[in-house]
Amino acid sequence: MATGRLAECVAPNLVGGEAKPKGFVYNIMRFCVHDGPGIRTTVFFKGCPLSCWWCHNPESRSNRPDLMYLAERCVRCASCVAACRNHAIRWEYGPVWDSGLCRFCGDCAEACPTEARQFVGKWMTVDEVLAEIKRDTVFYDESRGGVTLSGGEPLAQPEFAEALLEACRAEGIHTAVETCGAAPQETILKIGRIADLVLFDLKLMNPVRHKEFTGASNRNILKNLEALAKTHVAIVARIPLIPGINDDEDNLEQTRQFLHSIGLNKVDLLPYHEIGVEKYKKLGMDYRLRGLKPPSPEQAASIAEHFRRDGFAIRVGG
Fold first, then answer.
1. Residue ranges of domains in the chain
2. DSSP state string for the chain
3. Which fold has domain 6-64+122-316?
4. Which of 157, 211, 250, 296 is deepest in the core (most CB within 10 A)?
């Protein structure tokens, strides 16, 4: 997890009097096998234009730093209370955080001896991220893997995403971009020309329900995917399978028809899981789908088989 002081997260540094693109990153994860072919390093960008109810990376949503509290690490030393100059943490049989008073200065995280409080998100240069990526070059070579830009939404930071993709290309590293598609079409097409693979999330076809469960309409998202498909770039549509939200036959049939209409036949079906639920508590956020259970393997397999019968090359789990 990327951590750092707020002073490091205000704006990109000026180098030689000229601003160079820097990215707001919250994690760099190694040995990923579900974010594209082979063994991959996934760079998680911070900030996302959507707010999906099932998001398993809630720390990725905001474009500002976040504070995460890991209660199991807390030794109740009250160092965070003493360090907080804004009085956003008080002691009531343990530390209590008031997000309304917090200025995300990072003092509490710096003072915590056990890293029970972690400051999430920091600016990184292309060279800094590339150095992390290149540590795993041998695994990319052996598995035909590479690097995946994910998030959050990498296309919300287009200049940095472009610069990082170009740097990876110069090193001969395979690149993939995972996107929700909520970006200007010009950005989508430009990144599509640079990346070797685009993993495009397709959540709901009905625009009203899409807005209800993600916070935004899907009108431009669908237009962006249609435009991208015309460029002949390698695209995989990724469909999260969320029980009671988008797993009904009407939505799935509309999804199949839309993908057929734009000539895409590669699909990753991603069954809902509960892995990220506890993160919401650590961030002081409410989780709107608490208690929702993942689809059974049989349900996921049945839906996948329907896609196969309709001519799609589909994988379950990415």
1. 6-64+122-316, 66-120
2. -----GGGGSSPPEETTEE--EEEEEEEEEEESSSSSSSEEEEEES--S---TT-S-GGGS-SS-EEEE-GGG-----HHHHH-TT--EEESSSEEE-TTT-----HHHHH-TT--EEEE-EEEEHHHHHHHHHTTHHHHHHHT-EEEEESS-GGGSHHHHHHHHHHHHHTT-EEEEEE-S-S-HHHHHHHHHH-SEEEEE---SSHHHHHHHHSS-SHHHHHHHHHHHTTT--EEEEEEE-TTTT-SHHHHHHHHHHHHHTT--EEEEEE---TTHHHHHHHT---TTTTPPPPPHHHHHHHHHHHHHTT-EEEE--
3. TIM Barrel (3.20.20)
4. 157
Q: Amino acid identity, residue 46?
A: K
- C-alpha distances in Å from residue 150, one per residue of 175, 244, 280, 288, 314: 11, 26, 19, 23, 21
The pair of three-digit structure tokens given for residue 157, joined into one six-digit string: 């930071």
Task: Summarize pLDDT for 45-90 with one digit per residue, the tens.
Answer: 999 999 999 999 999 999 888 889 999 999 999 999 999 999 999 9
Q: Residue 9: which of 47, 41, 42, 55 has the closest Cα?
A: 47
pLDDT per position as a tens digit, 148-157: 999 999 999 9
Domain 66-120 class in CATH:
alpha beta
Q: Look up the pTM and report it.
A: 0.89
Residues present in the chain in total? 318
Task: Please tell me if the domain spanning 6-64+122-316 has the same topology as the one spanning 66-120.
Answer: no
Distance between CA atoms of 18 and 33, rounded to whole angstroms? 38
